[in-house]
Hints:
By secondary structure, this protein is mainly beta. It has one helix at residues 2-17, and strands at residues 26-34, 45-52, 59-61, 67-74, 77-79, 85-94, 97-107, 110-111, 114-115, 124-127, 130-134, 141-152. The protein starts with a helix and ends with a strand.
Amino acid sequence: xxRRALLCLVAVAVIYSSAGPAKASVETFGFIVxxxxxxxxxxxxxxxxxxxxxxxxxxxxxxxxxxxxxxxxFNGVTYDSTTANTGEIYLVGTNDVxxxxxxxxxxxxxxxxxxxxxxxxxxxxVASDSLSxxxxxTSAAWGGDVTSFRQAMST
Length: 155
């Protein structure tokens, strides 16, 4: 009986130790939004975002509040991680080390698992390599391209 209990404890320890990244690692990326369509065509916007991989599991993480920082000014409004945040991060990696390959969805109108825009509002969201936005003056939605790049080494 004692042996069975010890084996169960070892199994639980193995499961928890392989669930995701083992140490804190804040990943910071810069991003550039360009090639916009619609009324903001011709504008370029730049920003930074960070997330802590120790808060994530490999695979799908559908939740709000996953960004540890955000600095992005879009269409006259400056956003941070309290005014815009995640809908999801899909983290890829091997041997408990995250890679640069991930999917991220964040914006100013997000719920766990997704972000969206609402007609007649100043909404936007980034979905990895694209941006969607709406404006208060119309029901139309437009888009643009997003390029992201590692800004700093992991801490």
